[in-house]
Please model this.
Amino acid sequence: IRGRLARAEEWLRQHPRDPQLLLTLGRLCVQSQLWGKAESYLEAALAIAPGWEAHVELAHLAERIERTDDANRHYRAAAELSRR
Model:
């Protein structure tokens, strides 16, 4: 996973505002248990292109680190976006 993460971070230098790449980086960081880095990438993806996928990933991350209120907030946001 670390190799894929390093490669994706290199791509990010060329595509710093790619929400799908940021989402992927967030997921790779979750798999590597890099919680803070994962949150940063997922929040960056949301800032560029608000979408339900990033909210769900942030909700799952919040559950893993026992931030229930944040998890619930992201689940609600994902539900709102999926209804549109």
Q: What stands out?
A: The two ends are 34 Å apart (CA to CA). The mean pLDDT is 95. The first helix runs from residue 2 to 14.
